[in-house]
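In this supplementary section we document a worked example of the pipeline. Step one takes a protein sequence of length 385 as its only input; no multiple sequence alignment statistics are reported here. Step two produces a three-dimensional model, which step three serialises into structure tokens for compact storage. The input and output of this example are shown verbatim.
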Amino acid sequence: MSRFIPIPEWRGDAPPPRFPRLHPGDVVALLQPESFQFSTPSLHDRLLDTALAALAASAGVKYNDALSIKLEQWQSRAFELWACYGSRSLVLPPVAVATVERFLKLRPAAAAPHLFVRADGRPESDEHVAKRFARYAARCGYDGRNLPARLLEFFEDRFVGEQDRAAVAALAGRRVSPDCKHILSLEPILEALADRERLWRVLERNHLHLSGSADRLLGAAGRRLAADTRTIRGPVAKPPRVGGRYPWPPSLAMQTDPVVLEIAAALRLDGSLTERRRLRDLHLPHLDALRRDGQLRTGEIASLFDVDDTTVRLWTTKLMTPEERAALADWTKRLPKLYATRPHKETMSAFVERMARRGCRLHRLAIASLLYHGGALSTKPKGRR
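The serialised model returned by step three reads:
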């Protein structure tokens, strides 16, 4: 019998299931940057997300609170976060410190004063973080809007049997008990907050899975531990977008062409917009030549650069020669008239095939768009998703 949690069946317009509660192996998996390879191409962003996951699961820090920490505050460990009883100083396990220090190795030197910044140096936003966690959950088959909340639940669930509730409230930053039925008085919480050794004992006593040396939770040891103990299936790669409604087998060029393989490998390491634009400007003529020869689909080029098919068609239009541009302008003028005088009951598919025999190299959606803007069609054409 499989140890993985079965994903409930859903179809049609029903929303996907919510992300389930996390077990220790699932949290260890979220500490590995390899877990985000199918949802977050940039290694910088992957390390940032693992650091935020570690802070939430092992120290109870919300990701929007973590994004407010300044680099200077982190280096001096002199930062406090808001809590319901005032401000709290964090008790950070070694794994939380290790994941943040791992991210700092790729943090740009010329950047905003915040601890967590983007690859271009701007402060990271909570909207971008939420979208990346949601993409990770979607690759696992779930609606991931509650994934950050699940990480905080994991932190608080470890203290269910703990008797020192004041220390737990000081660590979690909340006076309400986990069952939301009792409100703890403020005096014992402040007393526990002043005794860091007491907080350390409570944290290590309950967070056995994330305490101790960080080496056993990160790197190769962490990946082995996650593979052996996780209960939620890992994310899977996105099916190749090849311009149709359903995924088709990739073309031979996607699997063997050295330029295509080089682009795919480079974007797996750094999927930033700057890197995608650089590779596009460098290799688009080669990719367009493969597309013209029928060796590569438009949708496959789109999947390489994580854009839609229309964007790729705009790129390839700019590569056209003056003769090709003149031919396109000629067909733009002639097509509405030819469609208006077509044989009786001729379908759009038959019209496109007849134009192709006359030398028109435009695809069906482009012809339909030209006809719509030329007044020959009354409804706007829609491309298949």
